[in-house]
Amino acid sequence: MTAAVFFGCAFIAFGPALALYIFTIATDPLRVIFLIAGAFFWLVSLLLSSVFWYLVRIITDNRDGPVQKYLLIFGVLLSVCIQELFRLAYYRLLKKANEGLKSLNPEETAPSMRLLAYVSGLGFGIMSGVFSFVNTLSNSLGPGTVGIHGDSPQFFLNSAFMTLVIIMLHVFWGIVFFDGCEKSKWHIPLTVLLTHLLVSTQTLLSPHYGLNLVSAYIIMVLMGIWAFFAAGGSCRSLKFCLLCQDKDFLLYNQRSR
Hints:
Helix content: over 70%
């Protein structure tokens, strides 16, 4: 894998996420802390998933054939469920922290839960993307073929675009998930879980990486629209933003919720 391909795939995968970080988070130390905490929660969820996966492999005595395929699907399902449980745990932690800050200093404006949802989602997404990208690069060194189904010549390019999708989806999932918890509409976090499962398992079930990427992008666009309105956006605010007439759009000067 040449250096040009490597940097090209890295730019595709992390360019938008890096831009989001620089323009919306990097200038605020508190947001950086929340982002790192979100990334840490994702890492802990991955560690727990890995422990379960390791135990299952030992119990099944590393059998080959169809057993490994079903174990892989089970591992992905388990990992996604644990990730969403940790997202819920992180929401609970941030909620308690916000309530504690308000009780200690009622005059101090606590961070908006919408802002915390965005930052935590980006933390989940960046760490997930880094892990996915590094895992793909390590597989490229061999031995054997790269990817579950083997021989796609566009595998690395598809992986870069899929990494981008996963990062952005985690941002949107975080916003939608927190909004559902805030409103006690538990079907919303359940929808996040189901779409997360769908995106994560489609590659295991189908060898057509291009079609999987298209369906993932469709889900990303739909979740992005949902997240936009869940974050308080509207057609009017979008119009003002595009015309550069809304100084309070998105993360700036949000009121506490």
